[in-house]
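Think of the structure tokens as a kind of shorthand, similar to the way a musician reads notation: each symbol stands for something richer, in this case the local conformation of the backbone. In the example below we present two proteins back to back. Begin with the first one, reading the sequence and then the tokens, and try to describe in your own words what changes along the chain.
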Amino acid sequence: MFQDIQPHVLKNQNDQQRAPRSGDYILIGRQQQVLLMNGTLPKYEDIDADYAFSSDQYQYLLAVDQAAFFWVDVDAVANDNYTVGTTRGFRDLTPAWLAFSSATAAHLAWWYDTKRFCGHCGQPLHPGATERSLVCAACGQTIYPTIMPAIIVGVTNGDKILMTKFLSGYNHFSLISGYTEIGETFEDTVRREVFEEVGLEVHNIRYFGSQPWAPSHSLLAGYFADLNENVAIELETDELSKAQWFQRDQIPHNDTNTSLTWTMIEAFRHHQEK
């Protein structure tokens, strides 16, 4: 899956902070718009030659092996050497370890970018001294990186699996998904989302796996669940355009297995669901 970058090692600990050096990657931009060089993040040696950023403008994010990622809090403006791109495109970078680490770094940069002031008293927030946090010196409020829990569920009925399509955006078949509400367990979310989106009830909910998904700032938990009763689908049309049952040997091939969704779909196709 997307996060499987072995033998490379993600180092996301806040206490690994250091100054940027040759070989490090730099995210320059705000609101998920960043400067790109040849379609990927520029390295520090290129930025240092082209821009006069001071040392305190480089916000350490994380590292993979010996390469660190930093954020520079200025607007992304294209020029002869750099284009402006969206961080959502990082999923398509190569090699795979660079795609995952760039997306995860962008998740952190987005958090710093959108959490500038205390939601309690309105004073500026400052990075915590030890842990990954932002602290208000005026009232003591402390906040941590935003990670939104969500579920993906493969609803099964014997040798069939239920697949859906969104109204807009992602244009392939996928699985039912949704964010966990306050006070819910993941299993409660599975039951609620299935009923809300297709009007069906499920049982035998079993965990498959998880995935950090930086493009939506989420942590995904994947489950399979068995259909209670073979009744008609009642499609929720605010978000979905289609819901359809597929036999294992009729499941379409229209994505890669970098996502948890398609890892689950392929597992069902090959009788490997848990």
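Once you have a description of the first chain, move to the second and do the same.
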Amino acid sequence: MPTEPTVGPRGMDYLEHALRALEPTSLPQASRLEIIGLVNGLVTLFARTELQRRKTPDGPGRARTSYLATATEERHPLIAAALAASPDTEASQDAHVLFERMVRRVLTGLVELP
């Protein structure tokens, strides 16, 4: 996905559809555009992560995670606690379930703005 904004005919259709989906909210139009941008960023992040995971299933990512789990206990106890409470890296979560949960959290947090 390109990192710079490009909107062609299908992009305009998508944007119109996304704005229509946000119609029931009482958010200003500018906030609706921000939400769409943030969700697009989240989709891009998940897509890049999945592509990287497919390239190197046992590569540097696993080594970094292992290092973080052991090296942070004294210096970064909050990171260690968060990693300890996270699912085991061996038992990877279903990406679809994780994506849905994250999108719901983002949208709930944004739509319920005061």
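Compare your description with these statements about the second chain. The chain is about 70% helix and 0% strand.
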